[in-house]
Design goal:
Keywords: Iron, Iron-sulfur, Metal-binding. InterPro entries: Acnase/IPM_dHydase_lsu_aba_1/3, Acoase/IPM_deHydtase_lsu_aba, Aconitase/3IPM_dehydase_swvl, Aconitase/IPM_isomerase, Aconitase_4Fe-4S_BS, Aconitase_4Fe-4S_dom, Aconitase_put, AconitaseA/IPMdHydase_ssu_swvl. By secondary structure, the protein is an alpha/beta fold. The chain folds into 3 domains: about 5-265, Aconitase, domain 3 (2-Layer Sandwich); about 270-410, Aconitase, domain 3, CATH 3.30.499; about 465-640, Alpha-Beta Barrel (Aconitase, domain 4). About 30% of the residues lie in helices and about 20% in strands. It has 21 helices and 27 strands. It has a 7-stranded mixed β-sheet with strand order 25-21-22-23-24-27-26. A 6-stranded mixed β-sheet has the order 7-6-3-4-5-20, covered by helices on one side. The two termini are about 35 Å apart. About 55% of the residues are buried. The structure holds alpha-methylisocitric acid and iron/sulfur cluster. Alpha-methylisocitric acid binds near residues 37, 38, 65, 121 and 534.
Length: about 650
Amino acid sequence: MKKSLVYKILEKHLISGVLIPGNEIAIKIDQTLTQDATGTMAYLQFESIGIDRVKTELSVSYIDHNTLQVGFENADDHRYLQSVAAKFGVYFSRPGNGICHQVHLERFGVPGKTLLGSDSHTPTGGGIGMIAIGAGGLDVAVAMGGGPFYLVTPRIVKTMLAGKLPPMVSAKDIILELLRRLSVKGGVGKIFEYCGEGVQTLTVPERATITNMGAELGATTSIFPSDKVTKQFLKAQNRVQQWKKFQADPDAAYDEEIIIDLNELEPLIARPHQPDNVCKVKEIAGLKINQVNIGSCTNSSYMDLERVAAILRGKTIHPEVSCTISPGSKQVFEMIAKSGALKDLIAAGCRILESACGPCIGMGMAPSSAGISIRTFNRNFEGRSGTRDAGLYLASPEVAAACALKGVVTDPRSLNETIEIPTPKRFILNDNMIVTPPEDGNKIDIIRGPNIKPLPEFRPLPNKIEAKVILKTKDNITTDHIMPAGAKILPLRSNIPAISQHVFEVIDVTFPLRMKEAGGGVVIGGENYGQGSSREHAALAPKYLGLTAVITKSFARIHFANLINFGILPLTFTNPEDYNKIEQEDLFIIENVRDILQNKKQLIARIPAKNLEIPLVYKLSDRQVKIILAGGLLNYTRESSQL
Ligand code: MIC
Ligand code: SF4
């Protein structure tokens, strides 16, 4: 049979299961990455599994999220992460070295390999031909211990790129066009495999912009073939020996197909508060703006920043706009310093930030009240910037630069400029901020500050769930709603009792208190519940407060897995209209739940006060049932000594 690129790589890594869409499979993971905000929990979990050395080909721990150090917490976490990396054989990318996805692409990504990362934008690695998947920290900890990664075989979407992008239209517009067509839930259960003549016209960082933001489609991952463009990129990174050709067979079979004609694309922009709320830039041209942020793992490559510098060269940022630049990596920073682009950006009045996530995760640079912020980032969820009523718009570096100059939303084509940036033949190579772990970690002591609290222990699932609906939410609830990030809350990531006091803060600040008063409870959700980030804290912290089940119309992939990992029952309505019959404060009863799950019986929840019986669906594999019954993956792993 003619094979897609995805199937070729998955088959090579298959440990169990059959590659049929919808089937659970287990795959071998070659590489892992963690970042600091999810990493502390991942390594605490790795420690508790009790293995002395990572068993992957390569594992890297990056410091890029919690880089604003207004108290001891983040610095303590970094010290813990550095010591734990040395102990267990993990490469350590120091703060200042850059955003995990950008650095991984430059220095570690290898075509045809699998990468599991405790960050939802891990699919950035698809730009270099990897199967790169985002997951909760616990799944990554298990993979570091040599355990397989379980996933439901996705449907493969042949994503055909025809033609070539017109001037001032960029890779960001390709993924915004897909979001416009398919929505933030259009990619759930799918992998987007790119092909067609348009592919050769895109550089590796441009491809990575597209695969990065495939996460916003809800996709499992996205991938480009490994071709001569990939070879050239690896050569410029002095890693050509790691290149191998990987592509689909001609006439390979796919589950779905979509075609984008690049010639037809125009500059696009996503309006608040979802990345799929996309329109043409010209449709909202003239809207007054307050802030421009250029950077993030989506658009902070050397070529991105060179393009911005070319537009801003010799000009001044509009007097009512604050414009920040965060280079994606130290390599990018050094490159723009050498080329002179950094000087042009400074001269134009840009505020230069360090190579880190920064404003993308609300680590500083919150916009003014009701401010309008144009960002080259990937998420514009409500409150994510740190300013609740700000309006965040997502666009390409070209659009962002044009807006920064004019002070209003501006189509960059109206600047009447042409910019041609040649692809570098050689990048500056200086890995001095990547610490290689010692051969023997036995003598290394792990350093823990007072902010690092032990992992909470959870009991097995009880046989009867009797719980109140503490919160009823709408469609597309993000993990930023469930467990907000930002400069104030992120430093609490290694302290579950403290961070749990912020659960659902964006929607209802009384949630933690009401959970406590009720002695636990359940949450009701609409479609695509838990979209966005991979943060397992969005499951772990509510579990700590006593969340036993979440009942929704549908779930996003990573959050669904995280709920199971922490022993929370993820249920969906058999009849979606039943969602309308439930109100906050209703008391739910599910009897014999252990028996029902074990014996694959119909699960029915009763609301006695309303005389209602609600049939519910649990889409769980036998392994997932065992995890839920044990009270989570850590308990299950310890009990069954199974990685
Ligand atoms: C994000 O972009 O939301 C984050 C912050 O990178 C998260 C991870 C986290 O919450 O630490 C993600 O994308 O998974
Ligand atoms: Fe960092 Fe933003 Fe990328 Fe998340 S999306 S990894 S916060 S840059």
